[in-house]
Design a protein that fits this description.
The structure holds two protein chains of two kinds. Chain A is of the alpha+beta class. Chain A has 20 helices and 20 strands. Chain B contains 17 helices and 33 strands. In chain B, strands 17-14-13-21-22-33-32-29 form an eight-stranded mixed sheet, with helices on both faces. In chain B, strands 3-2-1-4-11-12 form a six-stranded mixed sheet, sandwiched between helices. Chain B has a four-stranded parallel sheet with strand order 6-5-9-10. Classes of the chains: A alpha+beta, B alpha+beta. The interface between A and B is large, with 102 and 87 residues.
Chain lengths: ~675, ~725
């Protein structure tokens, strides 16, 4: 355990150079680094393509993946990431195997071994993320590791889908494998595969196919590294690996040196614990000093009994998503980045809960980092000469509806609905709007499936699926819109749904420099509906969430939080799941009136918002802007704002009197600091 | 005397290859973008001149003219298409805008994709206000769940026409399974705005343009066809008219992405999109057969891009997984030619943010200002500048002597941009630039071969394009390959390629069949439905061939099947052992073919028949085999190699230039052998024979350059 604890704390940083490693760097010939570093990335890319072409799980296709080359000591040097999450924590299970099982004669590390792991306590994010890894030997020497991981949409927990929203402890969350050997001599063990099938009996086909896909990809990477070693020698590879770590580190150091020293703060609130819709606080202070950055999450609410908890290294992994997608997007990805970054997560907060806590929904917790760093990094980059990279990023919701049951072909299926997952809006930038229906914040390069993809494999009929108006954060530049999708259970008797989306009651994706936050979105559901009959009869149907929320002609309508535990829906029942837009940038009154009206014409904004918030006066029929009236309306809004203005001290006194209802603060900790004030007991 | 003419129109040059009786000639002329037919006619005139006949004689005697181009892209890039209306199922109006979410990354490089703050979706080709939803719904089996509301549709039609829409793209959900609603919509449009009205406009149905599952790419494919239709129709109509008045009497044939071809008026715009590279690949296949090379990588290195295509065991049957045109994912079968940003114009620069790493490309200096040595104001150091400084290029004989290269400018650019920051000599900087760009190209060749399950060492490289022969030894070495072949007509390789092609039509249809049920273990028995679909596709083929004036009896059919293990999203396209299924034996033979191709491509570790095996689509290829034609060799008398002089050229780092023999390619007789380092100059390029490589001229006028042993790079 002490090895593990130590690894969780420092395993994300690169190991110090081993004997001879720096000499190996020195002995590299001109051009070796440029050529071989590119080659290693291509090797990882080849591995990823093998996995993607073979795999089933929707998250594997949505890009929650990593295929990478690691040093013999377990440091990452060349990955292809569907998400940057695993780029920092993926090292921990390898380093654990090296330290713990290398010297252990009952396990050992030998050529042809295949290891596997999906346990968050050993460096994973949550147990849906399953990783295969293989040692790479050449001339009897361990020279590298090949790693391939991807999210799996089922874990055999108390609810289907892997993200168990109603879990109270780790014991509710299904299969959790600490690092273990699942194959030897380049052969997978059938007894282990059967054990997995047995755990994952809601989706055995997906489990076995995807384990094979991961291992085949790992093996491909292994083979290529051996070919390189054969051609260039072990020592050259060792030198290249170290140089790659050094180069990323150099780049990060230089860029951070260009930032203005100081402490940059932000706070966001989460509106659910997974089992109850309550308020939690997440706080950050980013300190830039010289070439070092410290991210301190002190002030974050305490852990709780629900499923929305995380561990410190999971939070660190989410930081990597923002860091590699924005300030360091142009650097090679290696463990060298983390050498400059210190991350402090308060023990006992819901960002670093007890080991018995439920954490299968940890990405829903970790994703609070997206707006926290979205705002703080934007401020840093705005002042630090990287204005082009200023962007508040995405909502913290970042999840989707999960469906489970028998499909129309008689197969058991359980999986995320990939459309909402890949349909969040991107926040506005300093000089332009965000991106409408941009993607999946954790891994924005994935693809939302087509309606015809889903309806072929799941017994669902989509009622509508499109951009959802009024979901973006408003501002001088608006955020990208979110999307609405609505499913009707069809061609089966019943289906089970769960959902781990959030921000239904309180937004966490804030605007920048006066821009508005994106809107909150409820979940909608209609039970005992006759909507299929209405379709057949050619009667009018709701075409978006706003119409569905008023749709009372048929069945019983529920307007609820988007974090929903398992619900059984029968044929004809309706479930809508919408996604948030991105935050806005700058003052709404500075937005070009013509752009506002274009958004109305394109159904991005309602006429009401254009008029009331943006202060644009236009003819509702022709959509022609009345420039004079608009200027007057905007002046009036500014005057109202001025009337509301007060000295800060006065405002603060009043503000500190305010307090959310007591019940909402049940898990918050002390108000307003979030300091722990109760004990959590888990059995 | 019978003849044939092949034309490949690129951005800069129009390439022409003609056969006339036993003879063959080829030439290049400047592309006339304002009127492509003009440059095309000029090329035909020059070819006729080389043959010593009149253009009228050549055109009059030509049985076929085949044409490939990549210029459709320009219409797209310049956004010059007509104003279109989009009609889809109510509730799904945005799917062209949503574009599977991450549409912003389609058609972008990995480097661009990583920069999230710069993400932008492409400007839509149809404005949101011209997209309407109609009340109707069909399910995955083709059952009508909601009838088409015709009254509602007519209101929306009037709205679109009022908006000035000049064409309709119709893509309803599941229309490829049941196209009734799409067809009814076309009828309604035609009834309302019949041909005699000014409002009459073309209607493009997705169920006809791309009858395949997945509404986003069915819509983009239909949309691009509609968008490019009018301009291509006008342009090709004008070309046909010119050819006809010149005396040509047969249909003008267009090369398709599939490796097939059809007459201009039986081709859709999008089918012809990558005609040039595809023709090159087909030519490579013909030459591979003639030389007994089963496994070939056809490479073409020009000014901005490096294109490759693979021939494996004599076959070109690889298709792009996610074909993308400009920024639009589409659903058309495209042979898998691959392009990266590496060419003579690729820019070398130091990335200071990552500790002074030298990077080459993908940015290019383009044709303007071009490399520094072009003397057109370019200041960046490019690959061509490096080649010149290394002594590989003759500054006075570049591009047939039409361009003089300025070595001083090349040196200055390399010194300032590369050598000084790295602290190395200008020569070493140039050699590093060359090695890096060669390594990129080699790595791509390596990746594309190994990803398909093959060992690059078992392949030879065919090298074409102006810069190809300069770098071929370098990228071959980087890919671990040891044989390069350069043909006398390499400079018009794609035009030559199309001359080798059969008339081939490809028909595709999505349909789901369960070949092996994973739960019950039962094999497929629905032979009638399967065979009926094959019959439907082959009937269509016969109609098309008859319409083009060909003998339908000569047509040969081959079936390919898109297959996957149960639950998988990606399919593997498999050549079916038989055209129809009649027995359990046929079914199992089809599975066996799938298992073999899957194992080769990925890994036998991934075989998973327990999950069941599914068929997603059938692809029927209908081919009219052409008569065998001779390869246009340039027979050479026996001879030995005599250098025409020497040049200072750099081969090793920190070693400086050495005197290197230079040869005239036209003077190399059959059997001549030249050991590298050496430079062999021709009108269109320089063949760089690197140290350790040996060039052998054969009696066909081709050069085979080989490396003695396994390379150390």
């Amino acid at each position: 355990v002490s090895t593990l604890t130590e690894l969780l704390e420092r395993g994300m940083k690169p190991e110090p150079p081993a004997e001879g490693e720096l000499e190996a760097v020195e002995s590299l010939r001109l051009g070796d680094y440029e050529i071989l570093s590119e080659k290693l990335v291509l090797v990882a890319q080849e591995g990823k393509e093998v996995m993607t072409r073979m795999g089933i799980s929707s998250m594997l296709h949505s890009g929650d993946t990593l295929v990478g080359v690691y040093t013999a000591a377990g440091d990452l040097v060349a990955p292809v990431c569907g998400t940057y999450l695993h780029s920092v924590t993926g090292q921990i299970p390898i380093k654990f195997v090296i330290a713990e099982y290398g010297p252990d004669p009952t396990v050992g590390i030998r050529e042809g071994d295949i290891f596997y792991c999906n346990e968050a306590l050993y460096g994973g994010i949550h147990n849906p993320d399953q990783f295969a890894f293989m040692p790479v030997f050449h001339d009897s020497e361990l020279i590298a590791w090949a790693v391939c991981g991807a999210h799996q949409g089922e874990t055999g927990g108390q609810e289907p889908g892997g993200e168990i929203t109603q879990a109270k402890t780790r014991h509710d969350e299904g299969m959790k494998l600490s690092p273990m050997k699942i194959g030897e001599n380049y052969q997978l063990r059938n007894d282990v595969l059967r054990m997995m099938e047995n755990f994952i009996s809601r989706a055995p086909r997906m489990q076995v196919t995807d384990v094979k896909a991961r291992v085949a990809a790992c093996d491909r990477v292994r083979l290529r590294i051996q070919e390189l070693a054969n051609r260039h020698g072990n020592n050259t590879l060792r030198g290249i690996f170290r140089r790659m770590i050094q180069q990323t580190n150099t780049g990060v150091r230089r860029r951070v040196e260009g930032w203005l020293d100081g402490t940059y703060r932000h706070v966001v609130f989460m509106d659910t614990t997974g089992h109850e819709a309550k308020l939690l606080r997440a706080n950050i202070a980013v300190t830039v000093k010289g070439d070092k950055v410290t991210l301190d999450f002190e002030g974050t609410s305490p852990e709780h009994e629900g499923s929305y908890n995380a561990f410190a290294h999971i939070i660190a992994a989410h930081c990597a998503v923002n860091l590699y997608q924005f300030p360091f997007h142009d650097f090679p990805i290696s463990s060298g980045m983390m050498q400059q970054i210190e991350i402090k997560v308060p023990k006992g907060s819901f960002f670093d809960a007890d080991s018995e806590a439920a954490v299968s929904c940890s990405p829903l917790v970790g994703s609070l980092v997206f707006p926290l760093l979205g705002v703080t990094l934007s401020k840093i980059m705005y002042g630090g000469g990287q204005r082009d990279l200023v962007c508040g990023f995405c909502t913290s919701s970042a999840s989707a509806v999960m469906v489970s049951g028998f499909n129309q072909h008689g197969h058991r299926v359980t999986d995320f609905m990939g459309y909402p997952l890949n349909a969040y809006g991107l926040a506005a930038r300093h000089d332009r709007d965000g991106v409408d229906v941009f993607g999946f914040p954790h891994g924005p390069w994935g693809k939302a499936p087509d309606v015809e993809d889903i309806e072929q494999e799941f017994p669902l009929l989509h009622l509508y699926e499109h951009q959802l108006s009024d979901t973006c954060g408003l501002g001088k530049y608006r955020g990208g819109t979110g999307a609405a999708v609505c499913y009707v259970v069809y061609d089966t008797e019943y289906l089970a749904f769960t959902s781990s989306q959030k921000e239904s009651k309180f937004p966490a994706s804030n605007g920048l420099f006066g821009g508005y936050a994106a809107t909150t979105l409820p979940g909608l559901r209609v039970m005992n509906s006759d909507i299929l009959d209405r379709m057949a009869a050619g009667l009018p149907l709701p075409t978006d969430d706003y119409e569905l929320a008023k749709f009372t002609e048929s069945g019983e309508l529920f307007i609820e939080h988007q974090t929903r535990g398992i619900q059984l829906l029968h044929r004809g029942d309706v479930l809508a799941a919408s996604t948030q837009g991105g935050g806005g940038y700058g003052d709404v009154l500075e937005r070009d009136a013509a752009a506002v009206v274009t958004d109305v014409r394109r159904k991005v904004l309602s006429a009401e918002l254009a008029r009331d918030v943006f202060g644009v006066v236009f003819d509702p029929e022709t959509l022609l802007v009345d420039a004079t009236a608009t200027a007057a309306a905007r002046d009036a809004i500014r005057a109202t704002r001025a009337d509301l203005g007060r000295p800060y001290d006065e405002f603060e006194v009043d503000w500190l009197q305010k307090r959310p209802p007591e019940d909402t603060l049940k898990y918050f900790g002390e108000w307003p600091s979030g300091a722990p004030n109760r004990r959590v007991i888990r059995i | 005397v019978k003849g044939s003419i092949d034309i490949d129109i690129g951005g800069t040059f129009t390439d022409c290859f003609v056969r006339y009786g036993e003879r063959a000639e080829w030439c290049k002329t400047r592309t006339t973008t304002f009127d492509l037919g003009k440059g095309m006619l000029e090329a035909i005139e020059e070819a006729a001149d080389r043959l010593g006949i009149t253009p009228k004689e050549l055109l009059g005697q030509s049985e076929i003219i085949r044409y490939s181009t990549t210029l459709a892209l320009n219409t797209l890039l310049e956004a010059k298409g007509p104003r279109l209306g989009y009609i889809t199922t109510e509730g799904f109006e945005d799917h062209l805008l949503v574009g599977r979410g991450s549409q912003w990354q389609d058609g972008k490089t990995i480097k661009e994709m990583r920069n999230i703050a710069a993400a932008t979706k492409p400007s839509p080709l149809i404005a949101r206000e011209h997209m309407v939803g109609v009340k109707e719904r069909v399910d995955y089996k083709g059952r009508v769940v909601r009838p088409l509301d015709e009254e509602d549709f007519l209101l929306k039609l009037d709205y679109l026409v009022d908006q000035g829409v000049r064409g309709f793209v119709v893509c309803l959900l599941w229309s490829h399974v049941n196209p009734a609603h799409e067809r009814r919509i076309r009828e309604l449009i035609e009834l309302e705005y019949n041909e005699t009205y000014l409002g009459s406009t073309p209607v493009f149905l997705s169920s006809e343009n791309a009858p395949r599952r997945l509404e986003y790419t069915r819509a983009t494919t239909t949309l691009l066809n509609a968008y490019l239709h009018q301009s291509m129709y006008d342009e090709l109509g004008s070309i046909c008219k010119r050819l006809r008045s010149g005396g040509y009497r047969s249909p003008l044939m267009m090369v398709h992405n599939t490796g097939g071809m059809a007459s201009v008026f039986r081709s859709s715009a999008i089918q012809t999109f990558s005609g040039g590279p595809v023709a090159g690949l087909m030519g490579g296949s013909e030459l591979g057969g003639a030389y007994g090379f089963d496994n070939v990588v056809v490479t073409d290195m020009g000014g901005t891009s490096f294109d490759i295509g693979l021939i494996v065991q004599g076959s070109t049957r690889f298709y792009q997984l996610a074909p993308t045109i400009d920024r639009w994912l589409v659903d058309v079968t495209m042979l898998d030619t691959h392009s990266i940003g590496a060419g003579g114009g690729s820019i070398a620069r130091i990335n200071h943010d990552v500790g002074g790493r030298l990077e080459v490309g993908p940015e290019s200096a383009g044709a303007m200002p071009g490399p520094a040595c072009y003397d057109q104001g370019g200041r960046d150091a490019t690959v061509t500048d490096a080649d010149l400084v290394l002594g590989y290029l003759n500054p006075d004989a570049f591009n047939g002597g039409r361009t003089t290269l300025n070595r001083r400018r090349a040196e200055r650019a390399l010194r300032e941009r590369v050598a000084k920051p790295l602290g190395v000599s200008v020569e070493d900087a140039a050699l590093l630039v060359k090695r890096i760009v060669d390594a990129h190209m080699g790595a791509v060749i390596h990746k594309e071969t190994v990803l398909k399950g093959y060992d690059p060492r078992e392949f030879v490289i065919f090298s074409a394009g102006g810069a190809g022969p300069v770098h071929a030894c370098g990228y071959a070495e980087a890919a671990g390959m040891s044989t390069v072949v350069i043909f006398p007509f390499s400079s018009v390789f794609c035009a030559y390629g199309s001359s080798t092609m059969d008339v081939l039509h490809v028909y595709e249809r999505s349909q789901h069949f369960t070949l092996l049920d994973g739960t019950s273990g039962e094999w497929f028995t629905g032979f009638d439905a399967f065979n009926a679909l094959v019959a439907q596709l082959s009937d269509q083929a016969r109609r098309d061939f008859a319409g083009e004036g060909f003998d339908v009896e000569q047509v040969e059919f081959q079936l390919e099947v898109d297959m996957k293990f149960g639950g998988q999203l990606n399919v593997k396209r498999v050549a079916a052992p038989s055209l129809t299924l009649a027995s359990q034996g046929d079914v199992q033979a089809l599975y066996k073919a799938f298992e073999t191709e899957y194992s080769e491509a990925y890994s036998p570790l991934g075989l998973n028949p327990d999950a069941g095996v599914e068929i997603d689509a059938l692809v029927l290829k209908a081919r009219l085999p052409r008569l065998p034609q001779a390869i246009p060799w340039v027979p050479q008398p026996d001879g030995v190699a005599e250098p025409t002089g020497t040049r200072e050229a750099v081969w090793q780092l920190e070693a400086g230039p050495v005197r290197t023999p230079a040869y005239d390619s036209a003077a190399l007789g059959s059997g001549a052998r030249i050991a590298g380092p050496a430079l062999v100059e021709s009108e269109t390029t320089t063949v760089v024979v690197a140290p350790g490589w040996t060039l052998a001229a054969d009696d066909n006028g081709a050069f085979i350059i080989s490396h003695g042993e396994e390379q150390e790079s």
